[in-house]
Fold this sequence. Notes:
The protein is of the alpha/beta class. Helix content is 35%, strand content 22%. The protein has an eight-stranded mixed β-sheet with strand order 1-4-3-2-5-6-8-7, with helices on both faces. Helix 1 (3-14) packs across helix 5.
Amino acid sequence: MSKNKLKRFADMVSYPNVIAPKFDEVFRADFRLKSRWADEVFGNRHPLVLELGCGKGEYTVALARKYPEKNFIGVDIKGARMWVGATDALQNNLANVAFLRTRIEFIKSCFAPGELSEIWITFPDPQPQQSRENKRLTSLRFLQSYREIMQPEGIIHLKTDSQSLFEYTCGVLKSNNFRVLVCTDDLYQSGYADDILSVQTYYEKIFMNKGFTIKYLKFLVGA
């Protein structure tokens, strides 16, 4: 492991806005902050929003700046990347931002039913192999998990460069009667790209430079 990565991991141990549960705290167990994020992390009852697979945390931080009346948590297992967003939030005194370092498979261990108002999924691994379908963050398996911890009218956003993941997700939503609010296979030509949807992550910039169009879905998974 590089010295840079080691330094970043050391930094995050002391960062007050980074929570990193141990495996046995979330595997078949309820994490200590489940249902308590509002009281113990943010100190208010503002709506709670997640970014899943947050990478460097660009979207988490951008959303927090835009919406100070909401609380945001970036979730990822890659700590060295997460350091970028966590450091940015601390340096700019963004009190409505936190980062959770854990596997998304353990999301129900970390959040209680109805605790979340919104989820962003930004450029996830499309897991193109058929054998890894259940690893896709928009598979029915994951959507059912999100539904259990979201409010009834909670919104999910997906941004992706992957045509196959976009088509797959559209199929999952249609076959399970989830309500789609926005669907476009070319975000920047659609008229939907407001100042938030126009935030470009590190990976989005790479994909766009290669000529990929950006796909966007906004949908509900509530009953």
